[in-house]
Structures are given as structure tokens and as C-alpha cells.
Amino acid sequence: MANLTIAVDEDVLQRARVRAAEQGTSVNAVLREQLIRFADPAAGDRAADSFLALARERAGRSTGGRRSWSREELHLERLPVEQRAHDERDAPGR
After folding, report:
1. Within the chain, what is the greatest distance between any pair of CA atoms?
2. Is the pLDDT of residue 93 over 70?
3. DSSP calls for the chain
4. pTM of the entire structure?
5. 24 φ/ψ sector (left φ>0, alpha ψ -120 to 50, else beta)
6. Contacts (Cβ under 8 Å, ≥6 apart) of 17
7. CB 9 within 8 A of CB 20
8. Nearest to 6 by CA among 27, 33, 37
9. What's the start-to-end Cα distance of the chain, in Å?
10. For position 56, what pLDDT does the model report?
11. How far apart, in whole angstroms, are the C-alpha atoms of residue 93 and residue 18?
12. Quick one: average pLDDT of 71-75?
């Protein structure tokens, strides 16, 4: 892999480092991905085509517009196990 040196304002670099860290990555990784996209604009088209093909493949497995989950079920999935057990015991009609 080749190395690349660029000149950038120190403040810009610091803000980029903070933002990259917040996203769990590095400035180097962000710039690498951007350069890959810049060098091969068709790569984005291929990714979009793959996504659309997957969506078409999965379309036959849908619920026909009907939800297979309730708001309460989603809420329970996000709670810690201890809280879920407590909420289920105290739910009306149980």
C-alpha cells in the first residue's frame, strides 16, 4: 500500500480526528474510503445494484405490508433482561 502526505489546516485535522473517533474509525480510514470512491465512481453503482438485487430477492419474503411485530415487542427487546421480566409480570391482563 502506498503512503500519501497531504497539507491541511491543524484545526480541520483535529475536528476530523474527533469526528472519526466518534464514528469508531480514523481519519486515515475515512480518507482511504473517499479516495477509493473517487478513483472508482462505478463502485458506488455496483454497491447500489447489489443492494437492489438483494431487496428484490427478499421482496417475496415480506409480510405483505402487515407488521409482524407490535410496538410493545420492540420496546421489550430494547430493555435489559431484568427490566423485561419485571415489565412482563406487571403488564395488564397477565
Report:
1. 66
2. no
3. ---------HHHHHHHHHHHHHTTS-HHHHHHHHHHHHH-THHHHHHHHHHHHHHHHHHTTS-TT--SS-HHHHHHHHS-HHHHHHHHHHSTT-
4. 0.47
5. left
6. 26, 27
7. no
8. 27
9. 62
10. 80
11. 49
12. 75
Which residues in 52-74 are b (16+ Cβ under 10 Å) and which e?
eeeeeeeeeeeeeeeeeeeeeee
CB 27 within 8 A of CB 13: yes
Q: Give the Å distances, CA to CA, from 28 to 5, 9, 25, 31, 41.
A: 11, 16, 8, 5, 20
Residues 88 and 94 sit within 8 Å (Cβ to Cβ) = yes
Enumerate residues 6+ apart whose C-beta is below 8 A from 47.
none
